[in-house]
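Look over this entry.
=====
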Amino acid sequence: MRLLENLKNKSKQAAIVKGADYIVRYIQKDPDKHFDTMMKILYSLDTLFGNKGRFRTFMEWTNNNPGSRIWFTNLMTREPGQVSAFVRNYLGNCSLKWMEIADETVEKHGFCPPYSILVSPTMRCNLKCKGCYAESFRQDDDLDLATLDKIITEGKELGVFFYTILGGEPFLRFDDIETVAAKHADCLFQLFSNGTLINEDVADRLYGLKNVVVAFSINGTREDTVYMRGNGVYEKVLDAMALLRKRRQIYGISLTLTSKNYDTLMSREFLKFWEEQGVVFGWDFLFMPVGKNPDLSLMPTPQQRVSFGEFIKRYREQEPFYLMDFWADAPAINGCISAGRRFLHINSNGDIEPCIFAHFSTHNIKDCHLIDALQSPFFTFIRMNQPHTDNLLRPCMIIDNPEILREACRRFHAKPTEDGAERLLHDPELMQAIDRYSEEASRVIDPVWREKYTYKIDSMYARKRSYGEGIDRIEYKLNRLPFLEKIKQWAQENPAFARAMLDGLEFSSRRYGTDPKRHSLFIKPVKTKQQKEDELSI
């Protein structure tokens, strides 16, 4: 493929490899004394890769808040070999190198490679947790080792070096994961796990790999965990963390906010407890109405979403714990990041899905290259409708803007990849419940966006786009003619892809604003000087 040839030899990897070990030795020798100098070195990497301040912005946030300074020091003073791999792979490849390759890919080919690829090698699990979608998938489909390696090889050709491994329970496939992690030592692998299969042997093997970090799935307190996961699981998680803590490993937690554990997750004492267990990062998801028979009562209310998001933003600035919520922090990443915008998911059958929760597909990795899925009409349509609303606090095409997923699946005959997924498209009772939820989310969250996020609205106006690369609904609204010229350029290489872009953009242009309950108009078309003069002359 001509596209792939253009992406080769685009790294300043030698500088990262040479500097990583030095940076780690330097900061670990005297963390307090050497922190500021270390940050200056890391700032310089932004210039080296020509990334126009994007990497530097995150590093400045890290430097400017008392909690984040301590957090980054804690991270950089874990086991030296793993920290060196983290600097090389995450800061170097996953971030800086990805940005460099992404800029060229956008310019030449009209799409931004995903930042991370999510892979579920198996949907088998040793637990039966309430509300988990994994049990809705076939349990006899596992990705074979060759296909798992194919995904990573093709991803690296596109500049993707960050792989999140889910399931099911990934440690049921740890032998194969260990094999690909060792082969692709320039990548970072993050394993979302229930933690119950990590023993001394597994911990030793993780220690030897260096480029694998574990995110433990946590429901809340011991009582919450017993309710959701069963007896004894909470204690096994603590035991597994102790094994990794003894080896000074980097590890985190994954939380799922529900209406039932809201009070627990809003507790500073709860988060401090996990800090004390050695956790340095955390991801928060909302309970989603997916799977065979989702319990909608577990969905957090829109007000709970707002309150929790504001709570964790304050917490991570004050405490040494980086916690991110994919809804409340959506403004930082400019909206929904599915369909390859920043990530996609490949399930255990090889189906390429737009999101870990959107279980629909038109392509299978066993039959195509990743590029085929990224430039498919299904994925392209979703991206051209991003951000799905002008309010980036309501980013989701499942629970906030459900008409997008429904329309994309209808237009392109996306097939359900799990038992029960079709209910999101055809079950009137479930669809009406989600519609009511999305309307309530708009009523509650839009005023917060209007009051507290004017700077984001101003930024979109100034940049004439939402995402850094553009190629989105906002760019089509605010900068249409230059955008169309770029599509003409991309059409020379791939006419079908260009037509799919125009199809999605035209749909978004006609659709947005037709639903007064959910389509809040915070971004309005900017009239040119000539248009204003023409109006005055009428």
User: Anything to note?
Assistant: The first strand starts at residue 116 and ends at 119. The two ends are 53 Å apart (CA to CA). Residues 2-101 form one domain. Residues 1-11, 534-538 have pLDDT under 50 and may be disordered.
